[in-house]
Amino acid sequence: MNKNVKVQVTHLTKKFGELLVLNDVSFDVYDGEFLCIVGPTGCGKTTFLNSLTHLYEPTSGEILFKGEKIDLRKHDIAYIFQEYSAMEWLTVKENVRFGLELKKQYKGINEKVKDALELVGLTKFADYYPRQLSASMLQRVVIARAFATQPELLLMDEPYGQLDINLRFRLEDEVVRLCKQTKTTVIFITHNIEEAVYLGDRILVLTNKPTSIKEIVTDELPHPRDIAAPEFVEMRNRITDLIKWW
Amino acid sequence: MSKKNQRARALAYGGGTFLLLLFLWEILVRMTDSQIPFPTPFAVIERFVDMLFHNVGYYYTIVGHVLWSLSRVLAGFCMAAVLGIVLGLTMGWFPYVRAIFMPIFNLLRPIAPLAWIPLAILWFGIGEKYKYFLIFIAAFVPFTLNSYAGATHVDKQLVGAAKMLGANNAQVFFEIVVPAAVPSIFSGAQVALSNSWMTMLAAEMVCATEGIGWIIIAGQAVNDMTQMIAGMLAIGIVGFLLANGMRLLERRCLVWNNQGN
Amino acid sequence: MTKQKKLFAFRMKIISICALFGFFLFWYLVTDVWKLAPETLLPSPLKALETGITKWSVKKPDGSTLPQHIFASLRVSLLGFCFGAVIGVPLGIMMAWWEKADMCLKPVFDFVRTIPPIAWIPIMIILLGIGVVAKASIVFLSAFIPCVVNSYTGIKSTKKVHIWVGQTFGASKTRLLFKVAIPSALPYIFTGLKVSLNSSWGSLVAAEMLGSDSGLGYMIQLGRLLCRADLIIVGMVVIGIMGTILSAILDFMEMKLVKGAV
Question: At the fourth CATH level, which superfamily is domain B42-253?
Answer without folding.
Answer: MetI-like (1.10.3720.10)
